[in-house]
Batch of 3 targets.
Target 1
Amino acid sequence: MGIKSMISPKKLAIIAGVVILILYLYFVGFWEVVQIILTLDPRIALLAILIDLLCISLFTLSWKVLLNQPGMGFLRSFEVVLVSIFGDMMIPTGSVSGEIVRITMTTKKSRISVGEATASVVLHRLILAVTFCGVLGLSILLLATTGAMQLSAFYSFIMIGASTIAVSIVGVYLAVNSRKFERHLCGFITRTAPVIRRFKRDYDAERSREKAVSALCAFQGSISGARRWAILVSATIATVRYFLVALIPYLMFQSLGYPISYWVVLTVSIFVSMVQLMPVGIPGLVGVMEVSMTGFFMGFGVPAEIAASVTILSRLVMFWFELLISGITTFYVGFKVAIENGKSKNGESSGASGRSLSDPSVSA
């Protein structure tokens, strides 16, 4: 048996992330970083955790206001978001896995259709992209005017911001004009039907086309009929959240006694969030995120050991803490579903046995 057959791609991705992290810690000076981290004020760590919880709550709220009524309560929406965060961390596909989790759980926990749930998630993603571009542009402009960013870096960031805006515009166009792709969607289902029937003989292509068209109509209807006040509120909340996320590493810098501009930290946080959308296959982007965040800070003149210390402390809050609470929530949801399924099966079996005892044909 070859080595490739013994090690799965997922295990290889985990090994790659661990190797990158080990090499990262070696080059930044592990013991120097540990000594700096030990000087952190525990109260700052607690405040950072509270800010992170607030950021997750704001993310939930900015999505919840877009859900059609009757939607879900805030706590249930918060639960769905935590499970989606866990899905994103375990299956890094540029947030696609988390969005699928949100859509699936929303349709199961509410009376919202698949098309409406998909529309809310897509619209929320577009709002996040637009507000992302606005915050990025503001931070770059402030850094350029204060002289904290070199002209060459300014032009590079402008190009990245422009490309992000272009992608957002394309996304908005596709969402608003989704019904125009109905014919292509039906054609795709028809062409793939013979292949699917090889694995599922009773596959009904006509029924699949009807469901797809129905979901597409509900999707565009939800997008086109989205309330303007809901979009505005969602965008405002999303914008505030970006500024709060940057407070976590900024607090770490302040606690370590290193003076730095908040706008530098905000710019780095924005670019790090772009790295998170890379579907590299490494769970939690372990190693990749540490290298990226440290590299960005070093690009603004922060010493390697300070940049690494702030990066590790920030990741302890924004990754490991979120992994803990999202993992516990996912386990709780799965356990609750298992109990409910067990009760329903027991109810069916007891009902069947009750019918058999009362059936005259059985006693005869």
Note: Residues 6-340 form one domain.
Target 2
Amino acid sequence: MQKNSMIIRNMTSGDTVKLIVSFAVPLLIGNIFQQVYGIVDTMVAGYTLGDSAIAAIGATSSLFSLIIDSAWGINSGFEFVITRLFGANDEKKFKNAVAGMAILNAVIAGVLMILSLFFMNDIFHIMNIPSSIYEQAYSYMIFICIGIPATSCYNMFASIMRSVGNSKIPLVFLIISSILNIVLDILFVVTFNMGVAGAAFATTVSQALSAIMSGYYVVKHYKPILPQKNDVKQNKTMVGELVSSGIAMGLMMCVVDIGTLIFQSVNNTLGDMLISAHTAARRIIMMITSPMATLANATATFIGQNYGAGKYDRIKEALRKVITIQMLFGAFVFVLVYFTGEFLAVFTTGTHDKGIIENAVLSMRINLLLAPALGVLLTMRVAMQTMGRKIVPVVSSSIELIAKILSAMFLVPQIGFLGTCMTEPIIWFACMVFMVTNYLVSRKNLFV
């Protein structure tokens, strides 16, 4: 493919770990800044509006994740396809796939936004949103749903850049939009007294800006590899590959989040204090485990390019080394949270409620005890998906869904918040065993 002045990184040669880590660093910084969206919303709401605002945001966190992860997951599935085509140096099919990616994104984003807005009340009733925070939670989610097209657009443009090895430019746009989000959070919530709706509006505006900037950059700097008029016409094979990969990845994310949604609905019956504790813990867990997700995603890009190029030994080597790094980092974050959990809970929420702080710390310590398993699970899920084994990650996610439903039905009602804390780490371990076993059994068929 023509390179010209485009930022392109070919990962089919060179040191495996060095390539993955150097690609992952900008992704990690960007991931942290993305987490800032949620953290800043929680902090501004907690410090300005009080514990009920934290509960309102937290009670809808699983629904927020379902919507955002759907858009991210589908685009990640598309990205796996175009990454393999880039590795295979098939310019014609690459352009055809990017055209299909844009069309499918427009349709999916519109449908997601309309369905989310239309069924919001019904979903809230299913989730058992407490009446004391219902109005705040509803106003927060309305603005989040309106921003779905912007979220999808950013993910699409970022996926195009990542598929050719560029993880730095998406980072720049995320930093700018995250800083804007902080400023707008303070402006809308503190100055304009818009409540939690102001925090959501700030997030939506910031995401829209990142989508506009990334779209402009891709069109200006990647024009040689972007589709032309004759590339827009789709053949059935390409559409089928995009849809199957996008739906498989999106379904994997959705199944996980639907399980979390059901799980959240039971947790919402435990009271505002425990909802706030759960919210604080999840925000911190997501932040400090983001390097694991980032390393897994960087590995997916590496695997995609090398799988397309038929360089299977490099994939095996990368997986061995990345899994080792994931397990070591998982042990580190457990130790970190064990000794600093209380400080992190207070800093994140601004609360002085001992019940919120103590339960948030309990949740973090129990969850992160099995953080090494989470790192391995994240890596193996995207690795198998990238190599075209779409069903296995979906089955793994389905196991997670079933386990969360069973926990919601039996474990949490029996032992309360302790059941909430125990559920996810047990699931991480079980799904990790399933994914690793499947990889070892099917390894001969993967690399042919």
Note: The mean pLDDT is 85.
Target 3
Amino acid sequence: MEKNFFVYMLANARNGTLYIGVTSDLVKRIWEHREGLADGFTKKYSVKQLVWFESHVDAVSAITREKQLKKWNRAWKINLIINENPNWRDLYDEISA
């Protein structure tokens, strides 16, 4: 069975605080953020809405992409979200269905 890895962005509001992470279980990880089980930045700033994600076939490419995105300036990150999710919908329900 092939395992996928995901790079994702969370926000606390439209154009709000952003968080970038990587995981091999997107549904579980986002649920942890939403429930406040992930201590740290996302819990402190209530960053819970999944606004963007992409799939990778291996951990190395996902981690490389995560590091790349974390170096981007804020405007580039916002443009990436807007290009795929212009209304800043919370995508959690779509991935967990």
Note: The CA atoms of residues 16 and 47 lie 9 Å apart.
